[in-house]
C-alpha cells in the first residue's frame, strides 16, 4: 500500500511538473515574442515611419511576383480582418507606399499594389528586419535548433489555421 501511495504522489508531482513546464513555455514564448516585436517596431518606426503591422502588409505585397494582391487575399495572408486591413491600407496609401485599384475582373474587389516608394521602403526595411532577426532571434542558435523552431511553429500554425473561424 505504501508503494502505491508513493507512486500516486510521484505521478501527481510529475503531472504538476509537466503543467508548470507548459505554462513556463507559454510565458517565455510570450515574453520573448513581445520583446522581439518591440525591438522590431522601434527600429521600423524610427528609420522608416512604419509600424510592424505596416511592415507585414508591405512585405506580403513585396513577396508576390507582381507586388499586388486582392485585398481579401492580402487580409488572409497577413491574418488581419478585412476591416482592419482596409484601415491600414488607407494610411499606407496616404503615405504613398501602396495604392488600391479596382479589380479588372471584379469591380467589387480592390487590389492593393506596392508603389515604387513602397518597394524601395520595404526593400530597405526588410534588410534591417533580417539583421534584427539574426541578432536577436537566431544568434547562438545552431542549424538543428533552427530546424526544431521551424518544425514546432509550422505545426502550431497548421493547428491554428484549422481552428480559425470560417469567413473571417
Automatic annotation (TrEMBL):
The keyword DNA-binding applies. One of its GO terms (molecular function) is DNA binding. InterPro entries: HTH_MarR-typ, MarR/SlyA-like, WH-like_DNA-bd_sf, WH_DNA-bd_sf. GO terms for biological process: response to stress. Keywords: DNA-binding. Residues 22-158 form the HTH marR-type domain. PANTHER family: MARR FAMILY REGULATORY PROTEIN, TRANSCRIPTIONAL REGULATOR, MARR FAMILY. This is DNA-binding MarR family transcriptional regulator. It comes from Schaalia hyovaginalis.
